[in-house]
């Protein structure tokens, strides 16, 4: 199994590439979704777990359909998975949690 963090990185890369292919700026996409530019930026940099509903809305705006839509939504679901290390958020630092996440997928 691949680490959720690695899947978040892949999702972030794909979403950014799709947005750029369509010539849409981060600010414009954020306005269309009624979100802040920061929220879109965090999604495109894998700074947190993706909200699958937001990913669905982005794909709808970009006109992504069919198998590609299904593949990206599946990736978003897998990227949003919480691991055992998330229960120890209070006692583990962010670097320890990242290490546990990566190790989980090794």
From TrEMBL:
GO molecular function annotation: DNA binding
Pfam families reported in the protein's UniProt record: HTH_31
Domain (HTH cro/C1-type) ranges: 15-69
CDD domains the UniProt entry points to: HTH_XRE
SMART domains cross-referenced by the UniProt entry: HTH_XRE
Coiled-coil regions, chain positions: none
Gene3D superfamilies for this protein: lambda repressor-like DNA-binding domains
InterPro entries, sorted: Cro/C1-type_HTH (IPR001387), Lambda_DNA-bd_dom_sf (IPR010982)
Record-given protein name: XRE family transcriptional regulator
């Amino acid at each position: 199994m691949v680490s959720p963090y690695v899947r978040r990185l892949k999702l972030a890369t794909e979403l950014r590439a799709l947005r750029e292919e369509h010539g849409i700026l981060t600010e414009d996409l954020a306005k269309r979704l009624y979100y802040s530019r920061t929220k879109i930026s965090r999604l495109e940099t894998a700074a947190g777990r993706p909200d699958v509903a937001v990913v669905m809305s982005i794909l709808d705006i970009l006109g992504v359909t069919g198998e590609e839509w299904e593949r990206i939504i599946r990736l978003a679901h897998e990227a949003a998975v919480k691991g055992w290390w998330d229960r120890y958020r209070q006692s583990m630092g962010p670097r320890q949690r990242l290490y546990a996440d990566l190790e989980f997928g090794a």
